[in-house]
Amino acid sequence: MRCARLAGALLITIAAAAPAGAKSAPRTVTVIVDKLAFGTIPAGLHVGDTVRWVNRDLFLHSATSSGHFDIGLPPGAQRNMRLTRAGQFAFICKYHPGMKGKLTVQ
Ligand SMILES: [Cu+2]
User: Fold this and answer.
1) What is the pTM of this model?
2) Mean pLDDT in runs of 10 for the chain (106 residues)?
3) CA 37 / ligand 1 centre spacing (Å)
4) CA distance 57 to 75
């Protein structure tokens, strides 16, 4: 009897720790900005992941998606941006509009 109760409690604990449809743990991906260009944007991004923008260039840049985010990137700076919404987000550098990229978040 006592053992059965304990087993039941264990099952509930395990179920709470691993809900159905659980995704992998959030991850942090790095996007390098250098030579007036955004580096490769990693695929497979999910809500809860973090993009770390790293500016290795000598110029001030930004990662700007109108209505969604606007990250200022002074030379040598890095900034973390947590992904809170799914969708496709085209972005530019507002100082160099030829610099473009797109984040796809699931
Ligand atoms: Cu720029």
Assistant:
1) 0.78
2) 47 43 82 98 96 98 98 98 98 96 97
3) 7
4) 6
